[in-house]
Specification:
By secondary structure, the protein is α/β, with parallel strands linked by helices. Helices cover 34% and strands 21% of the residues. It has a seven-stranded mixed β-sheet with strand order 16-17-18-15-14-19-20, with helices on both faces. Helix 3 runs antiparallel to helix 6, helix 4 runs parallel beside helix 5 and helix 9 crosses helix 10. It binds NADP nicotinamide-adenine-dinucleotide phosphate.
Length: 523
């Protein structure tokens, strides 16, 4: 028996505080429980009840905003670099919180934390490269009258409100960092609200970085969102990541509508991976590698993970055999154990939702590998929020109304959909009604052209893998700071990252018309 299976008595639950108006504060009452999803124990509580969120927003607008706007891009970049370094210095402590409060294996927690430090560092470098300026130019000067002297210049200036970031439970570190990097570099203060169930890591991260920033530049709200949205005005921005249902509630919020608050939604997504029948060996191997990784990394709790896998009918048996062989090597269990590669879902409620979703998928597809209740290492039967890797397979292409095209099971679950022609595969991929990412594994130019033209309007990102890039290609689920993250339709219609494009949400585009040579000197 491993030494890790003998547990010390659980300490009393920690209290997760918020950081508002430059102070650490806790809401009233018992608060919401945060669980260790491996054992089911309550490890912490958080409450926002009674906190004055209007005052918190005003503090960020009046203190954090002016302080950030006074800095040049290079100076803001230096703040992001310091944040990245401070998070890296806390890496081991944060990894432990990822295990304790989110069921992360060491690899899963590193993926989240290193994603945060990498993204902050990327934007730090962008800031440095922009140097001493405080506004960005949008395009070239435009002559607006004969003679050339009168011209116009579009500029991007920081908004004077607060960037309110409402995040999902699955990336408590990266989720904060990717949004905060763009807003802070743009010169806009951040109020970050992590999902309550996994907020402990975010709380520890903000404790590490807040002292490095100007007062009011970064606030943290732990616990429910309360009446936060009622205090927003037109200067503010809400960037939300989470379920499509909550996204709709935010969009339809009376004050958000009345004030015309800018809203960016990153919601759920039924991402597709498409294998070409003629895929070369290297392309095929990358396909199996990536589908396996997307299923097992973070126990499949990535918004960008493939949920629907389109397989040419002639290769279906081969795919089932190879994917099953690879998944058979995954070890599910207590993430504290070195041999474990798949931990639990991050909360008991997530397991309940995944089981419900799996039941819905089962109406149109049968299980060909695994099942939710498979073997687990280091945890007693019936304990923890575990779902074992599960592959379902449909009999053929499915109608758009099928649960396979409608229900996102946020766990280590995929459905294989056999297809018989390129057109059919593309039509099936479109039935997700808008995805964050679609991956195409194939070497035929004809298929790639049809897939890119046929799916670009349905996807925020297309990952095209052929034999020449197969060994270098990044897994489709990996969000990089250089490229856009977001997707149309069901995926929320939002856009984040994409290098400097990620700052636009926090900037006002303004056309400045005047004396051309003078404007040139000004900017
Ligand atoms: P969720 O239930 O929608 O919660 C997301 C966030 O919204 C949490 O911080 C939650 O706070 C907050 N929230 C809940 N009700 C709210 C309301 N009425 N007004 C404002 N905020 C409210 O989603 P989740 O379960 O955390 O995350 C899972 C989902 O997120 C999945 O569907 C996944 O696909 C999606 N996701 C998408 C992306 C992406 O980039 N597109 C990335 C990751 C995850 P509390 O926790 O306090 O309730």
């Amino acid at each position: 028996m491993s030494e890790h299976t003998t547990r010390a008595p659980t300490p009393a639950p920690a209290r997760i505080e918020s950081y508002l108006c430059g102070r650490w504060v806790s809401g009233e009452g018992a608060g919401a429980p945060l669980h260790n999803p491996t054992t089911g124990e309550v490890v912490a509580t958080a409450s926002s009840a009674g906190l004055d969120l209007g005052a918190a927003l005003a503090f960020a607008r009046e203190r954090g905003g002016p302080a950030l706007r006074a800095l040049t891009f290079a100076e803001r970049g230096a703040l992001l670099k310091a944040m990245s370094q401070a998070i890296h210095a806390e890496r081991e402590a944060l990894i432990e919180l990822g295990r304790l409060n989110a069921g992360n294996t060491r690899g899963d927690a590193k993926f989240d934390i290193d994603g945060a430090t990498h993204t902050l560092m990327h934007y730090a470098q962008l800031g440095e490269s922009l140097g001493e300026r405080r506004v960005l130019l949008d395009g070239e000067p435009e002559p607006v009258a004969r003679g050339g002297r009168l011209s116009g210049q579009h500029i991007l200036a920081p908004r004077h409100g607060v960037a309110v970031h409402i995040n999902a439970f699955n990336f408590p570190a990266w989720g904060l960092a990717e949004k905060a990097a763009c807003a802070l570099l743009a010169g806009v203060p951040v109020l970050s609200k992590p999902a309550t169930s996994t907020a402990w890591m975010t709380h520890a991260l903000v404790r590490a970085v807040a002292p490095l920033l100007p007062e009011g530049a970064l606030s943290l709200l732990c616990g429910g969102v309360g009446d936060l949205l009622s205090h927003l005005d037109w200067r503010d921005v809400v960037a939300f990541t989470g379920s499509a249902d909550t996204g709709r509630v935010i969009r339809a919020h009376a004050n958000v509508l009345a004030q015309g608050v800018q809203v960016n939604i990153e919601a759920d997504s039924l991402n597709a991976a498409l294998l070409d029948e003629a895929a070369e060996d290297a392309t095929y191997d990358a396909f199996i590698r990536d589908v396996h990784r997307e299923m097992t990394q973070k126990a499949g709790q990535k918004c960008t993970a493939a949920r629907r896998v389109l397989v040419p009918r002639a290769r279906l048996d081969e795919v089932v055999a190879d994917l099953s062989e690879r998944l058979g090597r995954s070890v599910v269990g207590d993430p504290a154990l070195d041999e474990v590669t798949v931990g639990p879902l991050s909360a008991p409620s997530q397991r309940a939702a995944a089981l419900e979703g799996l039941a819905a998928l089962s109406a149109d597809a049968r299980v060909v590998f695994g099942g939710p209740e498979g073997p687990r290492v280091g945890v007693p039967d019936g304990v923890g929020a575990f779902i074992n890797p599960t592959v379902l397979c449909a009999a053929g292409p499915l109608p758009a109304t099928s649960a396979v095209h409608r229900v996102e099971v946020f766990g280590p679950v995929v459905t294989l959909i056999p297809y018989d022609s390129d057109e059919e595969a593309i039509a099936q991929a479109r039935m997700g009604d808008g995805c964050l990412v679609t991956a195409i594994y194939g070497d035929r130019l004809e298929l790639l052209e049809a897939a890119v033209l046929g799916l670009a309007a349905w996807s925020g990102r297309l990952v095209v893998v052929d034999a020449q890039v197969a060994d270098k290609s990044l897994s489709p689920g990996l969000v990089t700071p250089q490229l856009l993250h977001g997707g149309p339709g069901r995926a929320g219609g939002g856009e984040e990252l994409g290098g400097l494009r990620g700052l636009k949400l926090y900037q006002q585009r303004c056309a400045v018309q005047g004396n051309g040579p003078k404007l040139a000197r000004l900017f």
